[in-house]
Design a protein that fits this description.
The structure is a single chain. This protein has five domains: 104 residues, PH-domain like, CATH 2.30.29.30; 68 residues, EF-hand (Recoverin, domain 1, Orthogonal Bundle), CATH 1.10.238.10; 73 residues, Recoverin, domain 1 (Orthogonal Bundle); 258 residues, TIM Barrel, CATH 3.20.20; 131 residues, Immunoglobulin-like (Sandwich), CATH 2.60.40.150. The strands form seven sheets. The protein has a seven-stranded antiparallel beta sheet, covered by helices on one side. A seven-stranded mixed beta sheet has the order 16-17-18-19-20-12-21. It has a four-stranded antiparallel beta sheet with strand order 25-22-29-28, with no helix packed on it. Helix 3 crosses helix 4, helix 8 crosses helix 9 and helix 12 runs parallel beside helix 13. 41% of the residues are buried. Helix content is 27%, strand content 21%. It is α+β, with helices and mostly antiparallel strands and 746 residues long.
């Protein structure tokens, strides 16, 4: 890898260019250059790489399957929305060398965030960035360049004092341990040291009892506090001598505060912690709209990557728009538009690989077997309005090869594990299916307009073609087989809450446009909440959102709508809220609704919280203390340093919607101090999401985004906490963080 390898970089079936790829000496950076010109084209860091896939695991490589064997092909997948890199090696051996080497390097990057600020890996990374002449030493001019790179606008005299203090050899340069000393001086956390000394009698260490006092008084840990204190010392104290004496040094204290245990997010809620034995309609379900699109709705690219990315983010409800394709093969794309097409067979194959793949919660966990409104082990199963949902799991298949129809549609979420539910129109009634009959024509009326109803009529033909009467019998049989798979999510038109209460069943679901949902929220908020306590509702974006923008999901969650479909490919506040809500409960894609939203006789109305006899408002007090190593704004000028401010937003019922922000700190993105207190009153905290946003202040134009973190109020841990920031794409940007103090009072 370090000698350079000639490989084909592939963008399409016809675009295959030979490039030299080489791993740099830092074992962190890979660059590639043109074979023809010798010019370096691009470079990327190992920290940018999420995973490496072997074989034909992209549309481009699948299209070249006959030309190049899978043993020579692999795909480098980057974090966020950066496009994948498809490569073809000269031999299977070369491909394996790169695949295994990259995987080892990716694994080596996965050290705990707890040690990020003192890690030699981070220090080495900064040193290599600033060592311009690559001589292994750093003079003061290079140190000044480093400070600009690290987002610090430091007084030159102060920087020189730090430099000279670290230059123990008095050589005028820093090398090895000298640079480590300089880096640690830069990252000294005065606000943390002050807090440490408030609880330390000698100012040098926290005894076990002193640490217990801190955990009880400030962190509000009230169960097993002594055991927790011992565990934290064993886990985060770097000194072996201090661990043996059961004391915590200032370094260990900082490492604890930067750890998952010191995070604002309650670690107990990262894993599966909610009751999973309730009916499906009692959960919010992570849901995507037009999952196959990774760009806009008119000319954008359709890709199986859309399904993979959505599933990796915990999405449990997928959409597949299936249409007639060449040679009778169905294809997936946004009908009546210029979006590209992908074979339906590839979509099903992809879902088969990723639908129930298990990942690690802290890395954006994948589903742990919870039901998918999507497909695995599906043959010719797709939905009349595009939402793929069938019944998976070979154990549930009958002897005729078709999915066996369950005997009860009111099954709990726990009982639906490892199933794929098909949402769609149905021929006849559910009872007829269970009795083995059902030749009634499906109701094709639609809840919005005739054009969409006509589109659903075409889709329900299940890839029907114009090839004559010879296929008519097969088509009808297939349609009946598809109908028989619809058990839990029978699509029905919405004709009012009274009509639904009188004639609908819990196994049925209605789809509403965002505009129609908003009208119902305004006109009949309480009825909407009651309806969603016993039946599923799906909300989808307006057809006018051709740019794949999103509506606010919060207002739909406020009335208990379960399937709130968003364009996952579009970053922004709306997807931050979605990721924030579903980052809990093991990232399984299901979050239990509050108890008052599961009661069919509830009085709750989000527009009038006073009409509901809740526990009363609570006060959330947030002291924004400091920030650490905030990233630069994308495409900023060389030497530019940000002027950061922090905004805290509350997203919830209308009475709770609020935002407040700190002042901006001029020219300091490395260790800004705000020490400002923001306070909010929440009437329905059970539905509230809290979003922390860092922006670069600009007095002449709109502020630039720096980072954010969003979580449900229910997942907040009080006390002194770090907030580890995420990028616009929702990926982590270590070691960037905020340090805050949280208090919750009634």
């Amino acid at each position: 890898m370090q000698q350079g390898t000639l490989m084909r970089k592939v963008k399409s079936k016809s675009w295959k260019k030979q490039r030299y790829f080489k791993l740099q000496d830092d074992c962190m950076t890979i660059w590639y250059q043109s074979k023809r010109t010798g010019k370096t084209e691009s470079a990327f860091s190992i920290s940018d790489v999420e995973t490496v896939r072997e074989g034909h695991q992209s549309e481009v490589l699948q299209s070249l399957a006959e030309e190049f064997p899978p043993e020579r092909c692999f795909t480098i997948v980057f974090y966020g929305r950066r496009g994948n890199l498809d490569l073809i090696a000269g031999s299977a051996e070369e491909a394996q060398c790169w695949v295994q080497g990259l995987r080892q390097l990716i694994e080596s990057q996965s050290f705990p965030l707890t040690s990020a600020l003192v890690s030699h890996t981070w220090i080495r990374d900064w040193f290599q960035k600033a060592d311009k002449n690559k001589d292994g030493r750093m003079n003061f001019k290079e140190v000044q360049r480093l400070l600009k790179m690290m987002n610090i606008d430091m007084n030159e005299d102060h920087a020189l004092r730090l430099f000279q203090a670290a230059d123990k050899s008095e050589s005028g340069t820093l090398e090895g341990e000298e640079f480590v000393l300089f880096y640690k001086a830069l990252t000294q956390r005065e606000e943390v040291l002050s807090l440490f000394q408030d609880f330390s009698e000698d100012g040098k260490k926290l005894t076990l009892l002193e640490l217990v006092d801190f955990l009880r008084q400030e962190q509000l840990e009230d169960e097993g506090t002594e055991e927790l204190a011992m565990e934290l010392i064993d886990k985060y104290e770097p000194s072996e001598t201090a661990r043996a004496r059961h004391v915590l040094s200032a370094d260990g204290f900082l490492m604890y505060l930067c750890s998952p245990e010191g995070s604002i997010f309650n670690t107990r809620h990262r894993v599966l912690w909610q009751d999973m034995s309730q009916p499906l309609c009692h959960y919010f379900i992570s849901s995507s709209h037009n999952t196959y699109l990774i760009e806009d709705q008119i000319r954008g690219q359709s890709s199986i990557e859309g399904y993979i990315r959505a599933l990796k983010r915990g999405c449990r409800c997928l959409e597949v728009d299936c249409w007639d394709g060449p040679n009778g093969e169905p294809v997936v794309y946004h009908g009546h538009t210029f979006t590209s097409k992908i074979p339906f067979r590839e979509v099903v194959s992809t879902l088969g690989k990723y639908a129930f793949k298990v990942g690690h919660p802290s890395l954006g966990a994948w589903c742990h077997g919870w039901p998918l409104v999507g497909g695995e082990d599906v043959a010719a199963i797709w939905d009349s309005d595009g939402s793929l949902v069938g019944e998976q799991d070979s154990k549930s298949h009958g002897g005729d090869g078709h999915p066996r129809v369950p005997t009860s549609p009111s099954t709990t979420l726990q009982e639906l594990k490892h199933k794929i539910l098909l949402k769609g129109k149905k021929i006849g009634r559910l009872e007829d299916t269970l009795d083995g009959t059902g030749d009634e024509a499906p109701d094709m009326s639609d809840d919005d307009n005739g054009a969409e109803a006509e589109e659903e009529r075409r889709r329900l033909k299940v890839g029907g073609t114009q090839h004559g009467s010879a296929l008519q019998k097969d088509k009808e049989t297939l349609a009946q087989a598809l109908s028989d798979c619809v058990v839990y999510c029978k699509s029905v038109p919405f004709q009012g809450f009274q009509e639904a209460r009188s004639h609908s069943r819990p196994s049925e679901i209605s789809s509403l446009s965002e505009a129609k949902a908003r009208k119902l929220i305004r006109d009949a908020g309480n009825e909407f909440v009651r309806h969603n306590a016993w039946q599923l509702t799906r909300i989808y974006p307006s057809g006018m959102r051709t740019d794949s923008s999103n509506y606010s999901p919060q207002e739909m969650w406020n009335v208990g709508c379960q399937i709130v479909a968003l364009n996952f490919q579009t970053a922004g506040t709306e997807m931050d809220l979605c990721d924030g809500l579903f980052s809990q409960n093991g990232c399984c894609g299901y979050v239990l609704k509050p108890s008052f939203m599961r009661d069919e006789e509830t009085l709750f109305n989000p527009s009038d919280p006073g009409s509901w006899e809740g526990p009363g408002p609570i006060t959330l007090t947030i002291q924004v203390i400091s920030g650490q190593q905030l990233p630069k704004v994308a495409n900023s000028k060389d030497g530019a340093v940000i002027d950061p401010l922090v905004r805290v937003e509350i997203h919830g019922v209308p009475a709770d919607q609020a935002r407040q922000e700190t002042k901006y700190i001029e020219n300091n993105g490395f260790n800004p101090r705000w020490d400002e207190t923001l306070q909010f009153q929440l009437h329905v905290p059970e539905l509230a999401l809290v979003r922390f946003v860092v922006e670069d202040y600009d007095k002449t134009s709109r502020n630039d985004f720096v980072g954010q973190f969003t979580l449900a109020f229910a997942n907040i841990k009080p006390g002194y906490r770090h907030i580890h920031l995420l990028s616009k794409d929702g990926t982590s940007i270590p070691p960037s963080s905020l340090f805050v103090h949280i208090r919750i009072t009634e």
